[in-house]
C-alpha cells in the first residue's frame, strides 16, 4: 500500500454534493463530446467534396474508432487506479499510474500507426464494395493513423487527471486541440487545396497536440518516467477485462442493427434514429459515471468505505434522475423527433414501435451507467466483465435472433435490449447490496 506524502492528501470523503458531482461530470462531458462533435464538423466539411470522399471518411473513421475505443478502455482503467492512490494521500503514486499508462498508450498508438500503413488498403477494401471509395479511405486512413499515438496519450492523460480530480486541464487540452482542428479542417480541405487528405491532416494535428499537452503535464509533474513492467502488467489485466466487456457491447449493437436491417429499410432507419439518440444519452450519463470513478476510487484509497457507499448512493440517484430527464424529453418529443431525421412516413411508423421501449428503458439505463462508474472506480472490473457477458449471451443476443426467426420486428429487437439492461441492472444491484466491491487501500 502506498504511504501518504505530507501535504498531498485530499480531504476525507464526505457524501458528495450535487455541486461536487457536477464539477467533475460537466468537464468530463465536454471532453467526451469533443471528439464526436469534431467528427460531425469533419463530416460536414468533407461531405461537400462529394459522395466518394464522404463514404471514404465513413469507412476510414470506422477503422480509426478502434483506436478511440482502446483509448477509452485505457482511460477508464487508469482513473480507478490513480484515484485510489490519490485517496490514500499519495498524489505522486497517482500520477505515476499515468506515466505507466502513457507508456502503454504511446506504444499501442505507434503500433496502430505502423500497422495502418500496411493494412489500410486490405481493411478498407473489406469494408467498402466500391474500389474508388476503398482507395480513398485507405489514403485517408494512412495519414489519420499518424495521430494515433497522440490520441492514445491523451486518453491516458485523461485517465490519471480524472483520478486526481483535475478536471480543468483535460478540458483545456482536448477542447482547445479540437477547436483548432475544426478551424483548420475547412482551410486545409478547400483554400489549401488538399481535399480529403486535408481532413486527415487536421485530425493528426489535433490528436498530436492534445497528446503532447498531456505528455508535457507528466514531464512537469516531477515523477519518475521510467517504465515499470509490474504496474503495466496490472494495467493490462484491467484493460483485458474492459476490452472483453466492450466486445460484448459491440456484438450486441452490431447484431441488433443486422437484425433490424432484415426487417426492411424503414425498420433499420427507425432503429438507427433511436440507437443514435440512445448513444447520445449514454454519452451524457457516462459523465456521471466518470465522476463516480474518481470519487469512489478516492474514498476507497483513503480507507473510507462509508464514504464510498455514500458516493455510490448519491451517484446512483444522479444517474436515475438523469435517465428520467432524458425519458421525459424523448417521450414528450415522440411526435416530432423522428421527423428531424427523415420525412419518410414508413420510418415514422416503425419509430412509433421503438419509442415506448426507448423511453421506458432510459431511467433504468441511468442507474446502470452510474453503477458501472461506481464499480470501475472500485476496480471491480472482473465482475463487470462477467456480468456484461452474461447479460449479452443470456439476454440480448438470444432474444434479438428469436425476434428475427419469428419475425417479431423492431419490438423484438428492443425487447432484447430491455433484457440486456434488465439483467445488467439486476447483477449490478446485487453486487452493490453485497458490499463485495468495497475493498479499501491504495491497491485492489
TrEMBL record:
> Family per UniProt?
Belongs to the multi antimicrobial extrusion (MATE) (TC 2.A.66.1) family.
What is this protein's name? MATE family efflux transporter
Residue ranges spanning the membrane: these are 21-41, 53-77, 98-120, 140-160, 172-194, 200-221, 242-265, 277-303, 315-337, 357-375, 387-406, 412-430
Its record classes its membrane topology as:
Multi-pass membrane protein
Q: Which UniProt keywords apply?
A: Cell membrane, Membrane, Transmembrane, Transmembrane helix, Transport
Report the principal subcellular site.
membrane
Signal sequence region: none
Q: Name one GO cellular component term.
A: plasma membrane
Entry's localization field: Cell membrane
Task: Enumerate the InterPro entries for this protein.
Answer: DinF-like, MATE_fam, MdtK-like
Amino acid at each position: 500500500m502506498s504511504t501518504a506524502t505530507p501535504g498531498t492528501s485530499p480531504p476525507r470523503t464526505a457524501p458528495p454534493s450535487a455541486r461536487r458531482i457536477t464539477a467533475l461530470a460537466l468537464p468530463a462531458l465536454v471532453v467526451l463530446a469533443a471528439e464526436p462533435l469534431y467528427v460531425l464538423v469533419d463530416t460536414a466539411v468533407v461531405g461537400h467534396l462529394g459522395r466518394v470522399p464522404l463514404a471514404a471518411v465513413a469507412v476510414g473513421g470506422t477503422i480509426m474508432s478502434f483506436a478511440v475505443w482502446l483509448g477509452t478502455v485505457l482511460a477508464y482503467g487508469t482513473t480507478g487506479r490513480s484515484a485510489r492512490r490519490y485517496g490514500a494521500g499519495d498524489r505522486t503514486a497517482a500520477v505515476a499510474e499515468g506515466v505507466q499508462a502513457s507508456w502503454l498508450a504511446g506504444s499501442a498508438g505507434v503500433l496502430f500507426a505502423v500497422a495502418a500503413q500496411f493494412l489500410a488498403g486490405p481493411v478498407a477494401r473489406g469494408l467498402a464494395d466500391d474500389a474508388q471509395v476503398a482507395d480513398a479511405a485507405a489514403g485517408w486512413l494512412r495519414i489519420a493513423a499518424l495521430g494515433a499515438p497522440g490520441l492514445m496519450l491523451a486518453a491516458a492523460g485523461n485517465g490519471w487527471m480524472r483520478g486526481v480530480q483535475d478536471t480543468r486541464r483535460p478540458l483545456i487540452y482536448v477542447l482547445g486541440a479540437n477547436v483548432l482542428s475544426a478551424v483548420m479542417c475547412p482551410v486545409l480541405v478547400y483554400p489549401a487545396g488538399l481535399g480529403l487528405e486535408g481532413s486527415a491532416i487536421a485530425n493528426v494535428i489535433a490528436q498530436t497536440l492534445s497528446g503532447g499537452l498531456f505528455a508535457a503535464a507528466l514531464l512537469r509533474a516531477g515523477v519518475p518516467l521510467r517504465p515499470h513492467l509490474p504496474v503495466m502488467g496490472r494495467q493490462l489485466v484491467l484493460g483485458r477485462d474492459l476490452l472483453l466487456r466492450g466486445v460484448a457491447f459491440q456484438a450486441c449493437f452490431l447484431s441488433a442493427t443486422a437484425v433490424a436491417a432484415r426487417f426492411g429499410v424503414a425498420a433499420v432507419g427507425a432503429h438507427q434514429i433511436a440507437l443514435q439518440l440512445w448513444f447520445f444519452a449514454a454519452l451524457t450519463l457516462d459523465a456521471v459515471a466518470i465522476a463516480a470513478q474518481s470519487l469512489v476510487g478516492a474514498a476507497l484509497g483513503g480507507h473510507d468505505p462509508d464514504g464510498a457507499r455514500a458516493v455510490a448512493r448519491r451517484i446512483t440517484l444522479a444517474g436515475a434522475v438523469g435517465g428520467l430527464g432524458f425519458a421525459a424529453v424523448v417521450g414528450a418529443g415522440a411526435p416530432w423527433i423522428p421527423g428531424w431525421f427523415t420525412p419518410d412516413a414508413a420510418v415514422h411508423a416503425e419509430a412509433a414501435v421503438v419509442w415506448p421501449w426507448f423511453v421506458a428503458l432510459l431511467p433504468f439505463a441511468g442507474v446502470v451507467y452510474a453503477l458501472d462508474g461506481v464499480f470501475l472506480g472500485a476496480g471491480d472490473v472482473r465482475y463487470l466483465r462477467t456480468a456484461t457477458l452474461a447479460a449479452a449471451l443470456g439476454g440480448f443476443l438470444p432474444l434479438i435472433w428469436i425476434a428475427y426467426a419469428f419475425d417479431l420486428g423492431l419490438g423484438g429487437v428492443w425487447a432484447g435490449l430491455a433484457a440486456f439492461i434488465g439483467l445488467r441492472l439486476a447483477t449490478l444491484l446485487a453486487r452493490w447490496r453485497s458490499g463485495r466491491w468495497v475493498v479499501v487501500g491504495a491497491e485492489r
